[in-house]
DNA sequence: CTGTTAGCGCTTTCAG
DNA sequence: CTGAAAGCGCTAACAG
C-alpha cells in the first residue's frame, strides 16, 4: 500500500535519483522524462516521505515552538504570526506546551532536539544560566519571544519593552487625572511580565510624585480569576483611601477585576477606571471594553521567525543577545474615564 | 558536534545495537553494560534522533491534527484534551491550520501523510465524498471531532448532538417563559454548527407550537463581530413584535449580540435574554455572564485521541462510521431571565 | 546477553 | 541529462 520513490522509478523506467530530481530540482531533468515521471507520480498517488528526506538532507524544515501554555489567550495571536511566515518559507512548526513548568521546558528542549528541528522559538519564560549547558548542546539557533535571556548564553529576543509599556500605561492614567492608581501585578518571580511591569508602574507614579503604597498593589497569575480575587483584596485594603484606577498586568486580570467591581456594584469607569495589558481580542468583548496597552503579538511572532530563518541561513547572525523591542501603544476604549480635578 | 548512537557505541566499546537496546528495551541488557552505556550517553550528551528512529520503525508516534483556525477560541480547549492524552501515550501532535479553506484541508492531509503521522484527528469541517480518494490513500486511521462524515468513507466521529443541544437550549428558553425567541445562526452551508443547530432551534419552537419566522433569524460566521451585526439586523426587523430572547450558535456571537444590545441601551437579561453555544472560558468574562449550552471540548479531544490510539493498535477497530455523541448540558449564568406570564 | 547485517526512503556525489 | 552507489541514524532479525 505504501508507495515509495522506488516504485515510481520502476513504473516510469527511470532511476530513483531521477524521480527525486523531478521533485526537487526539475530544472535538471529533460522535458520528456519529467513529464513521464510526473505522470506516474500522479497515477500512483506518490507522496514523498518527509521523514526519510529529513534524514537524508539533515534538515527537517521545522521550527520548534515552546509556549508556556496553549490555553493562555495570547498564544493564539502569537501563533498566527509565527505560522504565517513559517509557512511562507516552507517551514512547519512543532509545538510544545511547557505547561508553566520549568521541568517541562527542559523536556521540550530535548524533545525538539530529538526531532531535529532547524531552529527554536522560545516564549515567555526568562532564560537563566541553568539553560547554558542544554542550549549549547542544542546546536540550532534559538530566538526568544516575549522574554529575554538572563543567562550567559547569548540569545536574541523580540518583545515589547515591558517596563516602558507599563510606565506608559500608568502615565496615561495619570494624564487622565488619576492619582490613586492601584496595580494588579503578576508574580514578581516572573521577571518580565511580573516584576518589570510592576517596576514600570512604580516609576510612573514616582515621576509624578505620587506616593507608592503597598496597599495599592496586589498579585495574581495573569488569569481572569486571579484578577477577580486580586481586585477583591485591593478593595478590602482600600476602605479609607479609595483608588480611582487600577492597572492590571494582563487583559484577563483586568477583565476579572472589572467583573469583581461589577459584582460589588462599583461601576467602571464611572467609579473606578481599569486598564489592561496585551490587547487581546477579548478586550472588545468585555463591557465596558477594555483600555489597554497593546503588544503586537502577531508581529512579534513574525519577527521571531524571520530572524530565526536568517540565523539558519547564515551561521554568523545568531551570536548576539540583543533585544529587539517592538513598539507598544495604548489602545483607548471605554474602561478609563477622565477625572476632572475639583 | 552532532553525536550519534555510533559515537556512543564506540566510546562505550559496545555495538550500536546495544546502545539502542539500553534506550528502548533496557530489560534486555546486562546490568553492567547498561550502566556503562548509560554513563557514556550522559557524558556525551547523546540524544537519539527521532527522525532516524521514525524511518527505521516506520512509526513516528505522531498524530496529526487539522483544525479550521487556531484563532478560534474553541481550539485551545480542544487541544488541551488532545495533547494531554497524546502525551500520556508518548505521542506528539502535529498541528495543521486549514484556515477555513477547503483547499488548505487537502494540503493538510497531504502534509500529514508526508510526515508519516500515525493517525489523524480532523475537526470541524464536514467530510464529503470529495475526500474519499485522498482518505483511502492515506493509510492511517482518521477520526473526526466536532464534525462527521457525509461521504462514503467510514469515519468515526466524536461530537455533541448539535441538533439536540440547540433543541435543548431553546427548550430551556421556552421553559423560562420565552415565546418570541430569535436565533443568530451560523451559515447554513456549515452543515454541523450552522444548519443542524438552526434545525434544532426550529424544532424546539415547533414542539411548543411557537410559529417560526424568518424575521427572527439572522446569520453570522461565529465571530464576535458577526454576532454584533446579526443582532443589529435582528433589531431592525423586529420593530413591531419584539423578541424576548436570542439564541446564538456560538458563545462569541452571543457575546457580540450582548454588546450590540448594550450599545443600543437594551439591557440583558432584563429586556432581552441571550444564550450561547460552546461554554468557552469567555462566557464567564462577559457581563452579564453568558448562559449557554456546553460542549465538553476537552473531553471530545480526549475521546478522539483515545479512539485513534485504539485504531492504531488494532486495525479492525477503525472501520465503522458511527457517531459518538458526547453529552452536552445547559450552563446557567446571568444572561437569561425568567419571564412571568401576565 | 551482545554483535553483525541489512534496510527504512530519500538524496547526492560521481561517472558516464 | 541520467544512473549507480553510498549513506543519513537508527532498529530488527538472526546468529552466536
Automatic annotation (TrEMBL), chains A, B:
Domain of life: Bacteria
GO molecular function, one term: DNA-binding transcription factor activity
Keywords linked to the UniProt accession: DNA-binding, Transcription, Transcription regulation
Transmembrane regions: none
Domain spans labelled HTH lacI-type: 3-57
UniProt-listed PROSITE patterns: HTH_LACI_1, HTH_LACI_2
Name of this chain's protein: LacI family transcriptional regulator
Amino acid at each position: 500500500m505504501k508507495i515509495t520513490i522506488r516504485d515510481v522509478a520502476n513504473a516510469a523506467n527511470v532511476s530513483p535519483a531521477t524521480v527525486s530530481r523531478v521533485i526537487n530540482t526539475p530544472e535538471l531533468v529533460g522535458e520528456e522524462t519529467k513529464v513521464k515521471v510526473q505522470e506516474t507520480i500522479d497515477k500512483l498517488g506518490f507522496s514523498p516521505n518527509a521523514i526519510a528526506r529529513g534524514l537524508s538532507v539533515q534538515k527537517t524544515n521545522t521550527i520548534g515552538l515552546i509556549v508556556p501554555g496553549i490555553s493562555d489567550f495570547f498564544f493564539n495571536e502569537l501563533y498566527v504570526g509565527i505560522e504565517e511566515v513559517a509557512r511562507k518559507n516552507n517551514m512547519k512548526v512543532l509545538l510544545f506546551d511547557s505547561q508553566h513548568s520549568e521541568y517541562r521546558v527542559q523536556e521540550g528542549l530535548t524533545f525538539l532536539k530529538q526531532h531535529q528541528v532547524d531552529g527554536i522559538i522560545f516564549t515567555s519564560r526568562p532564560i537563566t544560566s541553568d539553560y547554558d549547558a542544554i542550549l549549547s548542546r542544542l546546536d540550532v539557533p534559538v530566538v526568544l519571544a516575549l522574554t529575554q535571556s538572563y543567562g550567559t548564553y547569548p540569545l536574541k529576543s523580540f518583545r515589547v519593552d515591558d517596563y516602558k509599556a507599563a510606565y506608559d500605561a500608568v502615565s496615561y492614567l495619570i494624564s487622565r487625572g488619576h492619582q490613586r492608581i492601584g496595580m494588579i501585578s503578576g508574580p514578581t518571580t516572573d521577571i518580565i511580565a511580573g516584576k518589570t511591569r510592576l517596576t514600570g508602574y512604580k516609576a510612573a507614579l514616582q515621576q509624578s510624585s505620587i506616593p507608592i503604597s503597598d496597599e495599592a498593589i496586589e498579585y495574581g497569575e495573569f488569569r481572569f480569576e486571579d484578577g477577580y480575587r486580586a481586585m477583591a483584596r485591593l478593595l478590602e485594603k482600600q476602605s479609607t483611601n479609595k483608588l480611582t484606577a487600577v492597572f492590571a498586568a494582563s487583559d484577563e486580570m483586568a477583565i476579572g477585576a472589572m467583573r469583581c467591581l461589577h459584582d460589588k456594584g462599583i461601576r467602571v469607569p464611572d467609579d473606578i477606571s481599569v486598564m489592561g495589558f496585551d490587547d487581546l481580542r477579548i478586550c472588545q468583548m468585555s463591557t465596558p471594553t477594555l483600555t489597554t496597552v497593546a503588544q503586537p503579538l502577531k508581529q512579534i511572532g513574525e519577527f521571531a521567525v524571520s530572524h530565526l530563518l536568517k540565523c539558519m541561513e547564515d551561521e554568523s547572525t545568531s551570536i548576539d543577545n540583543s533585544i529587539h523591542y517592538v513598539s507598544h501603544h495604548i489602545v483607548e476604549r471605554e474602561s478609563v474615564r477622565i477625572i476632572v480635578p475639583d
